[in-house]
Amino acid sequence: xxxxxxxxxxxFLTTLKELxxxxxxxxxVWMEVDTxxxxxxxxxxxxxxxxxxxxxxxxxxxxxxxxxxxxxxxxGFSIKLNLYVANGQIHSTLSTTNAFGxxxxxxxxxxxxxxxxxxxxxxxxxxxxxxxxxxNLSNGQSVRHVNVKLPESLY
Length: 155
Fold this sequence. Notes:
The protein is an alpha+beta fold. The protein contains four helices and five strands; from the N terminus they run αααβββαββ. The chain is 30% helix and 32% strand. The mean pLDDT is 83.
């Protein structure tokens, strides 16, 4: 959050709520603290970012022989959030990384498909999908895109 790392979600959420109150207290800002807080928490949901990246990537890399799947339920990647006020409007930049794997369908065991997370099989290619979003939280406008990071060993 604005460059500060947190080790637990409870401390982070308390700090986020306090920061929302400070941002909404700026001169010229017309936004309710709870509205800003709830908006940010929903934007940071990993399930949303993961689904967005999956549905953008799967048509690009999936095929009759290949399958794109999340590789882990554990999230080792931190969410990066920056908040600031400009011209009386609250803005944010948000970055969330999701781990996927490209698997050959012949290598995937039926047990791997049950929870839609391939934890037992090793992916043919590991993919990190970085969802980046820039938002004007005061007027609801935002731009969201996905960057794909592949292992350096492929280059």
